[in-house]
User: Fold this.
Amino acid sequence: MDLPQLLLVGLVLLLGVVGVLIPGVPGTWLVWAGLVWWALHVRSTLAWSLLVAATALLLVVQVVKWLLPPRRVRGLGVTSRMAVFAGAGAVLGFVLVPVVGAVPGFVGGIYLCERLRLGTHGEALASVRAVMRSVGTSVLVELFACLMVVGAWVGAVVTG
Assistant:
């Protein structure tokens, strides 16, 4: 696969990760579609193995999201700014502490946004708890899975 196509696949994967944070955008499916595109062009054992593993992981995530309690966002103050902070924190945490850093980064991003908005530690912490109970868990599960797939893809591209 040549470099421009590889960059386009990376862009689709990145849009998928960002799409997880935006309601109505099929972020998980964009990540999967980018991986399918890459696997169809590379046609190696590593590419097909990664596609099968990612498909299984993303399907399990869809089931887990379905089993989680429904989202109740009204009255919590969840904004697009909070989604940006949470997403940036998750990506930064994922890069700084590979894989497991995404979870504290996500929660830390929400906390930072709420601390800037509300001003005090106690109010920000209470808001983080409420947000994580209502929408944070399902978004975090989906974002974490997509980051794992993208991280595995980057590893496969670098080593393969």
